[in-house]
Amino acid sequence: MKNNFAFLFLFSINTLIMAQVESKTYQVLLNGLLSHTVDEISVQEAIELENAVFVDSREMREYEVSHISNALFVGYDSLDLSPLQKVDKNKPIIIYCSVGYRSEKVAEKIKALGFTQVYNLYGGIFEWKNQNYPVVDLEGKETNQVHAYNRVWGIWLNKGEKVY
Q1: 2-163: what CATH class?
Q2: What gap in Å lies between CA 54 and CA 99, rounded to an integer?
Q3: What is the pTM of this model?
Q4: DSSP character for 138?
Q5: Phi-psi region for residue 132, left (φ > 0), alpha (ψ -120 to 50) or beta?
Q6: 110-122: per-residue pLDDT in tens?
Q7: Is the dihedral of CA 153, 29, 49, 84 positive or negative?
Q8: Which of 113, 6, 131, 4 is nearest to 55 (CA)?
Q9: pLDDT given for residue 18 in this prediction
């Protein structure tokens, strides 16, 4: 409990400063792309947050290539929030997509359902992989492959094997 309070205090201060990514150019892109309508969480903060539930808001073809371990799939174009039905509404929920745009939109909808700790992973799975954190395939095996969405957005994925 004490650790969660300390984390939330530090997270609140950092959120005022704004979540960061390693690339300054990527940072500029994200600042203009996102509406900042939900709290953003950096990859490092996400790693340190205890008991967080990761939610993947990409399309199934992207999720099938790789995803963050144990992430719940909800999609985007065919959004299905039913995987969240059994999740405690007071648990931290971290939503991600490739870079953070789609996940921000899904996070707004999840927040509207009454979830109290909803965060958009700033920089998305691209930044997660860029910072050398693992992703897994459908069998739960670690993989180096990441669906890069398309060749335009794929330039922001600097580590791992790009799949289109």
Answers
A1: alpha beta
A2: 15
A3: 0.86
A4: T
A5: left
A6: 999 999 999 999 9
A7: negative
A8: 113
A9: 60
**94 is written with which tokens?**
């971290």
Alpha-carbon distances of 69 from 16, 112, 137, 144, 152, rounded to whole Å: 29, 25, 9, 13, 26
Whether the Cβ atoms of residue 160 and residue 129 lie closer than 8 Å to each other = yes
Which residue's structure tokens are 């990527």? Answer: 26
Tell me which residue has tokens 């009454």.
114
Residues 124-146, buried b or exposed e (16+ Cβ, 10 A)?
Answer: bbbbbbbbebebeeeeeeebeeb
Q: List active site positions.
A: 97
Per-residue tokens: 3: 């650790």
Decide: 7 and 46 in contact? Cβ < 8 Å: no
Whole-number Cα distances in Å, 88 to 31, 81, 158: 31, 14, 35
Question: Which amino acid is it at 50?
Answer: E
